[in-house]
Amino acid sequence: MNEKYKGIIPALYACYDEDGNVSSEGTKRLVNYYIEKGVKGLYVCGSSGECIYQNKEERKQILESVMQVAKGKITIIAHVAATNTKDSMELAAHAESLGVDAIAAIPPIYFKLPEYAIAKYWNDISSAAPNTDFFIYNIPQLTGVELTRSLLSLMLENPKVIGIKSSAMEVKDICDFKLYGRKNLVVLNGEDTQFIAGRIMGADGGVGGTYGVMPELYLKLNELFKNGQIKEATELQYKITEIVDILTSCKSNLYAIAKEILRKRENIDIGGVRPPLPSCLKEDEEKINICINLINEEINKNCNINVI
Questions:
Q1: Catalytic: which of 137, 211, 218, 255?
Q2: Which of these, 73, 170, 235, 237, is most buried using a 10 Å CB contact count?
Q3: Chunked mean pLDDT (size 10), the chain, 308 residues
Q4: 0.90 cut: is pTM over it?
């Protein structure tokens, strides 16, 4: 059963209409695009999905649109954490009712809580979707919470905990989770620039915010690793990292840049980003075009696909 989580899983971008409202049409189009690219699954309503700036009903609408297209075709992991337990449990129950493969949650944010309280938060969320797998979302640079060995041990008492999405900058964390977690615990690499390092340390696949603008390259990267072509994989990782570095050097928000690249490369218009995230600025246009050219160049070189 764990095989459905092993592979390339883009973090789905939020799709908005011209008035800034959640767009079901845009969401469905984007999901279809990734299905056609051949990804393993999608991670919905996470950081790349701007979940922190959306209300419960919007997040439900997004997931409903995703499932109308994706159910039974690709793996869907729905991020359901909110700023309080009640809302998180409501989102978890809704996700289970739609038939998602798994739910996921960051730890509680803002207040610094003891580990037993963090574990209770996650277990309460899991209890609202008792028939659905649960992923711990470890992203300490944004939440301020480290997934320690002791906290992981507490969570592994819950049999529904299937894995960890680890976006920590420390690649050793992946080794620790594999070493000290239960057998067959799925660990997904969440830091895009260390995908190959994460896979070498034991990650089963990855979830990433930049997968969405160049899914072909991450699919190829994973293929090279699986085939034991580490030298070729490392060279491609360097190129991907170069692109990511340019993306993250822009003055605009990363997801605004990603959406503009999708619009220019694939003619997929899914709107901008939700304030207070900064929108796409004219001054970043040169860097955007550089990224597009680099992406196309690497696809032509590595994927046997001719793109302009």
A1: 137
A2: 237
A3: 93 97 98 98 97 97 98 97 97 98 96 96 98 95 90 96 91 91 93 95 96 98 97 97 97 97 97 96 97 96 75
A4: yes
